[in-house]
């Protein structure tokens, strides 16, 4: 480093950089020379002086002219070809690479690409080679990384993400997709190592790995088949980089392929075996909605569940093009989760639902939990958002992710806080708490006592075993006490989704968004995304009045409008900008003040007359959205 600094100063004084170019080329293309250039002078397990490596790169990149930087780029690219061919210590090579990542944003695009490719090809048997031995982030002994480590990780991550974004924005030809860009693929593979490290240490939120530009440009119809057929590179194998909206679109493509396959099969079976419906048809009586649904779904095969859903309410007109099934889900979910029905309990503080503990072996009740699981699976499969309020723990259990005290605290804040206080208590736990490894629970109005472990009554809670007590308590509440109910629920869900990409590409948090939608009622985004028909546009006076009225609505009125126009009051994953909403002119002007607004919920179309005043529009609109129950909607 000292020699480099001296020659750089001399070259800067004379403006002749030939000597510096020669030095860089000699050192950075020769593994033997390089391995002797940054040796530690103090005791350490790692004999390479990492700060010196970084200082050398920074000096060249920030204090030297472009010709010297070009020499460094060419030299390091040449070095990268040798770095994992046993020409010098693997550990040293990885440090050289990681120090390049430190200044990733400053190096050339070609060098960035070569660096990412080299990191991803480091070692087939140990793909995290560059993440070990403190090469990326120093060994962490604390439970959580400190601020400096978090900032370093964020800096490295931002550099890689920025490279992908800039590369895609400046693509050479319009038809160049992310799947065809070698540099983007290499960088994504490199990001995978960062993601694995982040899953262990939690440096940043998982959302930091989403890349917006890539999600905008990804061609799902090309990428997904490669994932399913295991042919070629697919971003579905690196789901951390895909946002929930893209993943939801992937599921739609998968469902479309599967439904098309079942439709073709039904056609051919009809030729040889007689008529067989290409749809999953449910004929439902409104006043027997749970009984009819349970009975009919129990008679369906797994193959039938893969067909597109069609719901017919007995005695009612209306062809289900999506709107009827939305209302069906709305009604049956409301009834199944009604406290009077007794399947689920709701916490007063969190307002979240959980399975009701039941020590009896009631076959009918268990089958109804299976029905709820099937309904969630069918909703996912048919792209319907549900008004359900489960904690994240449910989706973690569906995805076979362990639940924690934090999950219990979300479901039952009071109990969660109490257990947290037990862990932090600084006094004598045995004296202060005076309890055993038993707990009392209210089950159907009766207080029952349960052992958290064998002979729990004889085991005193102490400072030494309180961690075990809390873990067993969490396990009891979220797992053991409702094991039969959840297993039935999971089995029902898996009947529809067992082979789905949902298990491979979604996180539990994203499954929750997929099923429940978003809570963000961003009507500004909805206005920007809305299309118009019947000669209207965004500047038509009636349309301007409509949006002025709607923006002044309360959140509850906005939800009613969504339900009236789309059949669901839930916001789709990705926000209201993803909703294909249309406002169209309805009817002649002669009766415009008499007719109420109507809707095609199947197609998210709101039909308005050109009312004589803004006040009349508001009055007619509120009347309609306040009486939207039933298929009075078109």
Summarize the structure in words.
With 634 residues, this protein is of the alpha/beta class. It folds into 3 domains: 2-202; 252-398, Hect, E3 ligase catalytic domains (Hect, E3 ligase catalytic domain fold); 523-625, Hect, E3 ligase catalytic domain (Hect, E3 ligase catalytic fold). It has 28 helices and 10 strands. The chain has helices spanning 2-14, 18-28, 31-35, 50-63, 66-80, 90-102, 109-120, 147-169, 182-201, 212-217, 220-229, 244-273, 289-298, 302-305, 323-336, 363-381, 392-398, 405-411, 413-424, 429-433, 466-478, 483-497, 502-505, 508-516, 523-529, 541-551, 555-566, 614-625; strands at residues 279-284, 308-313, 344-346, 353-355, 438-443, 446-451, 531-533, 582-585, 598-600, 605-608. It has a 4-stranded mixed sheet, with helices on one face. A two-stranded parallel sheet has the order 1-2. Strand 5 (438-443) and strand 6 form a beta hairpin. The longest helix is centred in the middle third of the chain and has 30 residues, at 244-273. It is globular and about 90 Å long. Residues 86-95 and 122-142 have low confidence and may be disordered.
């Amino acid at each position: 480093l000292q020699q480099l600094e001296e020659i750089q100063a001399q070259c800067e004084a004379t403006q002749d950089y030939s000597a510096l170019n020669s030095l860089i080329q000699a050192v950075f293309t020769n593994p033997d020379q390089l391995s002797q250039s940054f040796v530690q002078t103090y005791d350490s397990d790692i004999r390479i002086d990492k700060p010196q490596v970084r200082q050398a790169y920074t000096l060249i990149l920030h204090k030297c002219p472009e010709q010297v930087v070009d020499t460094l780029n060419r030299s390091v690219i040449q070095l990268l070809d040798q770095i994992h061919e046993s020409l010098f210590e693997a550990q040293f090579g990885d440090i050289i690479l990681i120090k390049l990542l430190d200044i990733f944003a400053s190096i050339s695009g070609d060098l960035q690409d070569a660096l990412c490719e080299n990191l991803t090809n480091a070692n087939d048997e140990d793909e995290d080679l560059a993440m070990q031995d403190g090469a990326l982030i120093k060994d962490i002994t604390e439970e959580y990384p400190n601020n400096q480590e978090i900032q370093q990780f964020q800096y490295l991550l931002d550099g890689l993400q920025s490279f992908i974004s800039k590369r895609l924005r400046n693509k050479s030809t319009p038809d160049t997709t992310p799947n065809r860009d070698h540099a983007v693929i290499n960088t994504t593979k490199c990001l995978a190592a960062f993601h694995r490290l982040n899953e262990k240490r939690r440096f940043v939120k998982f959302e930091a790995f989403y890349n917006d530009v890539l999600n905008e440009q990804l061609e799902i119809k090309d990428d997904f088949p490669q994932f399913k057929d295991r042919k070629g590179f697919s971003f579905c194998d690196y789901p951390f980089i895909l946002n929930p909206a893209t993943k939801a679109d992937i599921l739609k493509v998968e469902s479309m392929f599967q439904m098309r396959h079942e439709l073709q099969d039904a056609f051919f079976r009809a030729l040889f075996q007689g008529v067989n419906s290409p749809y999953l048809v449910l004929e439902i009586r409104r006043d027997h909605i749970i009984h009819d649904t349970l009975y009919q779904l129990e008679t369906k095969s797994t193959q039938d569940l893969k067909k597109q859903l069609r719901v017919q309410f007995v005695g009612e007109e209306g062809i289900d093009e999506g709107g009827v099934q939305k209302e069906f889900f709305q009604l049956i979910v409301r009834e199944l989760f009604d406290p009077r029905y007794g399947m689920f309990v709701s916490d007063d503080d969190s307002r979240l639902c959980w399975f009701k503990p039941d020590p009896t072996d009631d076959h009918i009740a268990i089958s109804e939990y299976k029905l709820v699981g099937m309904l969630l699976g069918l909703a996912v499969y048919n792209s319907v958002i549900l008004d359900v309020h489960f904690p994240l723990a449910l989706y973690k259990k569906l995805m076979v992710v362990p639940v924690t005290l934090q999950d219990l605290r979300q479901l039952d804040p009071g109990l969660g806080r109490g257990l947290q206080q037990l862990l932090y208590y600084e006094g004598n736990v045995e004296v202060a708490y005076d309890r055993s490894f038993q707990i009392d629970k209210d089950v159907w109005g009766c207080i029952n006592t349960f052992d958290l472990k064998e002979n729990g009554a004889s085991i005193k809670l102490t400072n030494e075993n309180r961690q075990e007590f809390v873990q067993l308590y969490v396990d009891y509440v979220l797992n053991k006490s409702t094991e039969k109910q959840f297993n039935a629920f999971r089995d029902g869900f898996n009947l529809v989704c067992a082979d789905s990409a949902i298990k491979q590409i979604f996180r539990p948090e994203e499954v929750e968004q997929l099923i429940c939608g978003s809570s963000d009622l961003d009507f500004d985004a909805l206005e920007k995304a809305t299309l118009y028909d019947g000669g209207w546009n965004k500047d038509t006076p009636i349309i301007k009045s409509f949006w002025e009225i709607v923006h002044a609505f309360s959140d509850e009125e906005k939800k009613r409008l969504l339900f009236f126009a789309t059949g669901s009051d839930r916001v789709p994953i990705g926000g209201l900008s993803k909703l294909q909403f249309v406002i169209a002119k309805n009817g002649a002007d002669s009766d415009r003040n008499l007719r109420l607004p109507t809707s095609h919920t199947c197609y998210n179309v709101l039909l308005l007359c050109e009312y004589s005043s803004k006040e009349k529009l508001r009055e007619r609109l509120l009347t309609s959205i306040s009486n939207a129950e039933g298929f009075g909607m078109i």
